[in-house]
Amino acid sequence: MQASREIEVLIRAKYPILYVTSWEERRVEEEIAEIAKKIDRKLHSWSLTSGMVPPIGVGSEKKSSLPPELQALALVHEAQEFTLILLKDFHPYLKDPRAIRLLRDLAGRLRERAQTLILLSPTLTLPIELEKDVSVIEFPLPEREDIAATLDEIIEQVKGNPKLDVSLDEAAREQIVRSAQGLTSDEIENSFARSLVEVNRLTVDRIIEEKKQIVRKTGILEFYPSSSNLKDVGGHELLKDWLVQRSKSFTDAAHEFGIPYPKGILIIGVQGCGKSLVAKAVSTAYGLPMLKLDVGRIFGSLVGQSEENMRRAIRISESLAPCVLWIDELEKGFAGAGGSVSDSGTTARVFSTFLTWMQEKTKPVFLVATGNNVSALPPELLRKGRFDEIFFVDLPDLEERKEIFKIHLAKRNRDPKKFKVADLAANTPGFSGAEIEQVIVGALNKAFFAGHELNSKDLLEEAKTQVPLSRMMSEEIGWLRDWAKLRARPSAKHEGD
Ligand SMILES: Nc1ncnc2c1ncn2[C@@H]1O[C@H](COP(=O)(O)OP(=O)(O)OP(=O)(O)O)[C@@H](O)[C@H]1O
Ligand SMILES: [Mg+2]
Predict the structure, then answer these.
(1) CATH 3.40.50.300 at 230-391, yes or no
(2) DSSP state of 429
(3) Which of 414, 413, 368 minimizes the C-alpha distance to 391?
């Protein structure tokens, strides 16, 4: 396995401090014990609750007035040559300047004495002072072969039980193994066991449930159940056609045909014109689950945490592939990634992790990014090869406004044929889709209060009372249009107001 091999090489090459990130303490500890045995190193393992096992020195631990985590570091001085010291969950103490200093002091000495300190934590929180002394290794989650082996083990264990049906055909087996990717070995075992207890056989449902849990716990990603469909989107014909054309590209058949998985699209444009609406409709149209990524929440306070968050979000979304990953208001997260030094380059690094992923992504994760302030977006993002296409969404023209009126009237159980939709559209130039919806909601309220059924007059009157945002923001919109002319594809062939 790649990560174990890397750890072994680094230990042999006398790297002083390794930082291994993994949620699977038990699994990593076993691997490290294996390595220690293989290359003949003594292994000590420390945690806050068990202290150093086996102990180093004789009882020196108890005498000191230092807090236990610093005692552990002090003890390293007394360890023999050719030793590995594994510190479990040490990351909270890396905020303490004393711990940082002790580690830096140790680094040189460790190398001379062929000792290696291994920090093992689920998250990477590396203070900047230690960046040069520490090598970071990401211990990957179980791969397909590991999962298949776990599955076989479980089947072997329970196959004598007449109440359980563990027969799986090749396709069902493949589906289970594939869907369990992205889980830790404990989670995989738990979800298999739970499936057997609950339904007496092995199904993917339990695994999906387990994944929903994980997504929920990240706080960065959320499962976004969408009820919108492309039919709920008025106008944007070119964009909708493009999306429909790609809807089959996620199938195995398409892949075998030689079609690469679509990477995703960036939708830029005027506020309230349906960017988020389209994103939500994609997931329904493609019949894929949708994850929403909150870029703002990626940014943690410690060096490394933000990048780890980004990597985690990527890993989880890949493990759920095929899926749609929606990043709303992209510019809010990555504003200033181009050059700002105000956050010592964290934004830039997170952004570059993201760009690399977009460029090299092979898993079918369809990215839908939406945003409206393009001036804040770093130009690298817009380069070819990142998104399949960049679409510009403008204010709806006359025809599109008609469609939007019809969609929202129908949504509120009104027959559009009973309304003067053409008049309404003609009287709402510059209105966005969101504003048209507002006109209908406002008019409904007034009609209900007055005690009569909604009619075209109510709607026309309501429209007159509203000033569309585009009137106040004509300069910005003009700028956005100029920008888009050169860089983006229009979402619709506009015929004019
Ligand atoms: N083209 C459209 N067709 C139908 N409804 C629309 C359209 N555009 C906007 N709407 C309505 O307005 C609501 C808000 O639009 P949406 O959130 O998609 O706008 P947005 O472009 O993402 O705006 P923002 O830039 O403010 O995020 C939608 O939920 C939908 O009800
Ligand atoms: Mg939006």
Answers:
(1) yes
(2) T
(3) 368
Q: Return the higher-pLDDT residue of 106 and 381.
A: 106
What's the sign of the alpha-carbon dihedral 159, 165, 171, 177? negative
CA distance 485 to 10: 52
Q: Whose CA is nearest to atom 6 of ligand 1?
A: 433
- The pLDDT value recorded for residue 351 is 85
Give me the mean pLDDT over the 195-203 stretch: 90
Which letter does DSSP use for residue 491 in this model?
A: S
- CATH 3.10.20.320 applies to domain 398-466: no
Using most ligand atoms within 8 A of CB, pick from 229, 277, 330, 408 the residue to mutate for ligand 1: 277
Select from 3.40.50.300, 3.40.720.10, 3.40.50.12060, 3.90.550.10 the CATH code of 2-138.
3.40.50.12060
User: In this model, does residue 261 exceed pLDDT 80?
Assistant: yes
Pocket test for ligand 1, best of 276, 368, 403, 440 (most atoms within 8 A of CB): 276
CB of residue 272 inside a 6 A radius of ligand 1:
yes
> How far, in Å, is the centroid of ligand 1 from the Cα of 278?
8
Q: Region 201-211: what's the mean pLDDT? A: 83
User: pTM of the predicted model, to two decimals?
Assistant: 0.73
Q: Is 20 in the pocket of ligand 1 (CB under 6 A)?
A: no
Residue 180 has a pLDDT of 85
